[in-house]
Design brief:
The chain is mainly alpha-helical. The protein is built from eight helices and no strands. It starts with 15 loop residues before the first helix and ends in a 7-residue tail after the last helix.
């Protein structure tokens, strides 16, 4: 799966301490990307829309719903695709939320619609790079990313297509549950797959198919 010619592929041979730092940097950038998209205010992501719809039907909080969905995805990826959770899986579920909150005072809040969409688009690109960065640490992928990578490996499907398909399925379920689906939700679903694939490719974690 690895492509040695990728610009950042050498991270695979880094010592454990350096890879641990790479993991934290990737998760920090991931949190920053979510913060930027939230503050762009053009719509929530598919998984947040799903979560918001879920809590309308189940007596749990938004945070509890997020944890529950993550746990279900980890269990599904392991049982179906044999994707083993690791330190990166756990820290993904714990630290990204912390980083989102910590970065709130530093995130722009644009009011002009073109600037809002530009910030949202940058957030999507940053998330793709952040995904490649933390996965390149080789400590395991988060719940959603692990499921996407597992499906891609099992069925030899391109990551971009798998992620897009998963996100669109989540959008459909969110609509059924009454979640707040908007144009930003759809834009994210269609763009995060190519962005994730590009981020992985920079680290030699996906070949072009």
């Amino acid at each position: 799966m690895a492509a040695p010619s990728a610009p950042l592929a050498r991270t695979a041979s880094w010592p454990t301490a350096a890879r641990s730092a790479l993991l934290l940097v990737g998760l920090l950038l991931f949190g920053a990307s979510v913060r930027l998209m939230l503050d762009a205010r053009v719509g929530v992501g598919p998984w947040d829309a799903l979560n918001a719809g879920l809590v309308q039907h189940v007596p749990i909080t938004f945070g509890q719903g997020s944890i529950l969905i993550g746990a279900v995805l980890v269990a599904l990826a392991y049982a179906w695709l044999r994707v083993r959770p690791g330190l990166g899986t756990v820290l993904n579920m714990v630290l990204i939320g912390v980083f989102i909150d910590l970065l709130a005072p530093f995130s722009p809040h644009p009011t002009a619609l073109p600037v809002q969409w530009a910030q949202f688009a940058f957030g999507v690109l940053l998330m793709g790079f952040a995904t490649g960065t933390y996965i390149a640490s080789r400590f395991g992928a988060g719940p959603r990313d692990g499921l996407v990578l597992g499906l891609g490996e099992r069925y030899a499907w391109p990551v971009a297509r798998v992620r897009t398909g998963v996100e669109l399925l989540v959008v459909a379920v969110a609509v059924v549950l009454g979640g707040p689906v908007g144009w930003g939700t759809l834009a994210f679903a269609l763009s995060i797959g190519p962005s994730m694939a590009l981020g992985l490719r920079l680290y030699g974690l996906e070949r072009r198919k």
